[in-house]
Amino acid sequence: MADTTELKNHVSQKRPLLAQSLMDSSEPEPTSRVLVIYTGGTIGMKTNDNGVYEPKEDFLVNKLRTLPMFHDKEYAESHFAEDEEDFLVMPPKEFLGVRSKQGHQKGRRVMYRIMEYKPLLDSSNMMMTDWGKIASDLYDHYDHYDGFVVLHGTDTMAYTASALSFMCENLGKTIILTGSQIPIFEVRSDGRDNFLSSLIMAGLYNIPEVLVCFDNKILRGNRTIKNDAGSFAAFISPNLPPIATLEIRISVDWSAVFRAPGTEKFRVHTNMCQNVGLLRMFPGITTQTVRGFLQPPMQGVVLQTYGAGNAPDNRPDLLNVLKEASNIGVIIINITQCTRGCVMTSYATGKALEDSGVICGGDMTPEAALTKLSYVLSKETWTLEKKRKFVKRNLRGEMTVVAKENITILDFELIETVARALSVSSTEEVKKLRDALYPSLMCAAAQTGDNQALEKLRSLGGNFSSHNQDGRTALHVACREGHVSTVQYLLHQGASVHVKDCNGITPLLDAIKGKHMSIIRLLMKTGAILTLKPFVLAMELCCAAAMEDIETLQAFRSAGADLNEMDYDKRTALHVAVDTECKRSVHFLLDNGASWTLQDIFGNTALDCAKKRNSREIIEMIEKKEQEASLNTENGT
Ligand SMILES: NC(=O)C[C@H](N)C(=O)O
In residue terms, where are the ANK repeats (predicted)? Predict the structure, then answer.
């Protein structure tokens, strides 16, 4: 064993060395490793002797090594270890143009290795087995790389991206598919930007999804469609905004990023079911065509219908064929032929399909619907029921989850948790969920007069005009509960005093019911008006008069109510107050302009009623008012 002097020497020699190595600027900077799986496509093609584009072996990687924007030769020579020789390295961060404020892994060099497939394929030649090969390679190299880029032809890129999104289970790293419309080494090419952007995103950002990078946008792969054969903006994502945009700044919509729930490890599912198909409806499609299409071994069909998911409901022949197929276990998904929008069952023609066992595919693209079917159907251990259930479910952010409007929740902190639990995966969905939850949350906050909570909800995008399932807004509730400062706050934020709930109740009526005078005044000042029908108002007044509820009479009065309003029998509150001998009501009504001369349908005035009842005190009160009135007339006041 070493003696103490030896140990001391060892420590004194080692310590400064260790400290030095941590601080030495000549040490390699941290790196991100990206694996580029090069499958083919225009991006790496060359014109052949016949003057047409063709992929060429080893052409891409050798050429890239000569381009400084793709490979920092000097750095590679001085820094790469022996086993890193086949890597390329991007220029230092100062030259990458990454200016986003957050989210990326700062200061990393992006190293990448290109794994070239043999043969390289035009993507039109790809098969489902090629998706399996890509998925397997992703799995095999998953632990050794930070991110992945798949160079791919554009023609079937949306299919591959959709398929990979399902095949990659519990994905935790970025996978980006890209390609180009013009080969990367032509003078004009979209390939350089697309590839460089993909390397940067895959190397520096953790967006654990299968994405497509094209034309300075990062789109969720299973939402994409190749939409333009000739444009650099070849892909669209019609039902979901880009996850990220690469402009002067790189902006990532982090709230839209889909994250696999759970704690399971990454794995891939490679044996996709090939017995699937796309069937596009057209007017006059024959039953034989549909029947033929649905014949075994067909296991799953994506039915592209009209508009919001409609097919003829006057064709029992057709519907029967679909029903028969569904009954024997063929899974049929209904998606729209429209590029944008989703399938709903708001038309009888759409409902008829649903009744035939066809599953609503929401806003899935044809590519996503087809590959989802292929994925789900290949799960051999799943029952048919489970497969149908999973087809309906949002598995990888491929469809928009519409939150049910009547969700209620009491805890403000739960919104994000709920969003996660529902696999909410896009800004659109989060907005929908928020719209469903916020009104209830705002009403709950208003109930307790919690202005801070209201302000928090507002800052998170809450809209004070939104109402809960009973049509009630935060203002209704605050008015009913009598929280003056909350009402003030809400009015200040533009909450409407005119909105009516499902029962036609306005915030003003709520304040009257709650007998909150200062709130009534505040609402009146803001332009609120009493919206009750005259006879309904009269009945309210009569009731209050009969119950000697002076506060309610006062509240109505402050809200501008005419105290002489008549009910069905043309009776006023004063008639009722007299007949019920509620002296305080009579007093209040007389003091506030109630007329003792109005006749009901029986020809009686309030004074007549008092005389009939021989209510002396009341007669006196009325007569006193009569005298005051005649004096005032004489004095001209
Ligand atoms: N732009 C392209 O990549 C088109 C090519 N035909 C392909 O899909 O491989």
Answer: 470-502, 503-535, 569-601
